[in-house]
Amino acid sequence: MIIVNTDYISGKELQMIGLVKGSTIQSKNIGRDFTQGLKTIVGGELKAYTSMMNEARDLATSRMVDEAMALGADAIVNVRYSSSAIMQGAAEVMAYGTAVKFV
Q1: HAMAP family per the record (predicted)?
Q2: How many domains does the structure of the chain reveal?
Q3: pTM, whole model, 2 decimals?
């Protein structure tokens, strides 16, 4: 499966199938949340949250690809990601794009 954030793939003629998306809501455990809260006092990267968001993006992307494959797509173009806080320490990540077939 080819995944790009452009509306074209060089050398390919595309037939649009439709919108596909994948999402997940992730949170870290209370112990990690506490230690990351302490980190905000001194500054620096919140590595546990960086890891959480990377895992969430990977899972959302995988779910988007699964949806595209179920539609018989060869690729997904115009891929975008969005995230939003659901509650303190939890975030939703969504991946979405346009499923296409090669003509």
Answers
A1: UPF0145
A2: 1
A3: 0.83
CA neighbor of 86 nearest in space, from 10, 15, 23, 37 = 23
- Residue-level pLDDT, tens digit, the chain, 103 residues: 999 999 999 999 999 999 999 999 988 655 555 555 555 566 677 777 788 889 999 999 999 999 999 999 999 999 999 999 888 768 899 999 999 999 9
d(CA 76, CA 69): 10
For residue 36 the two structure tokens come to 């990351």
CA distance 64 to 72: 13
Q: Find the CATH number of the domain harbouring 12.
A: 3.30.110.70
Q: Which of 76, 50, 51, 52 is nearest to 63 (CA)?
A: 76
- Structure-token match 């997940």, residue found: 24
Rounded distance between C-alpha atoms, residue 69 and residue 14, angstroms = 15
Domain interval for residue 73: 2-102
Q: Residues 38, 99: contact at Cβ < 8 Å?
A: no
